[in-house]
Design brief:
The chain is of the alpha/beta class. It contains 1 helix and 12 strands; from the N terminus they run E-E-E-E-E-E-E-E-E-E-E-E-H. Helix content is 24%, strand content 22%. The strands form 3 sheets. The chain has a 5-stranded mixed β-sheet, with no helix packed on it.
Length: 142
């Protein structure tokens, strides 16, 4: 299973930890240094949840995420470092979590950038055409 649960970690009821999960600490002090996981939380394969914060009830952490900050209740977190990609008004069934279908915020950002570049290229083409037509009207000898 390779699951690591730090000595000060607290785990709620009905929690699913897939293989390779670490609930770890970020210091060696003898205080609360590991996460608290609320009820009905799903933590995907290979995820690292590091520090003395809470992963709220009904939250979901995607596979291979590295979470170092508080996770609100009913939120879905993915990435390195973990970022909130979805937040639900009401708790969802744990079985709805399909790790292969979680949103990819970086891919979405890249897609937006590609769309913006395409739009700018179109504008540039129109401006170049308009500029050429204007230049021809002003100097018909061209």
């Amino acid at each position: 299973m390779e699951v690591v649960i730090g000595e000060t970690a607290e785990i709620g009821d009905n929690v699913t930890l897939y293989h390779g999960v670490t609930l770890g600490g970020v210091s060696l002090e003898r205080t609360k240094r590991h996460p608290t996981v609320g009820d009905n939380v799903v933590i995907g394969s290979g995820s690292k949840v590091l520090g003395p914060f809470t992963a709220g009830e009904n939250s979901r952490i995607g596979s291979n995420s590295v979470v170092v900050k508080e996770v609100p209740s009913t939120a879905t977190v993915v990435g390195i470092p973990g970022k909130i990609v979805m937040s639900h008004d009401k708790p969802q069934e744990k079985t709805d979590l399909e790790h292969g279908k979680l949103p990819d915020p970086e891919a979405k950002a890249l897609a937006c950038l590609f769309d913006q570049v395409r739009e700018l290229e179109c504008k540039f083409g129109r401006l170049a055409t308009e500029h050429g037509e204007l230049k021809q009207r002003l100097d018909p000898g061209i």
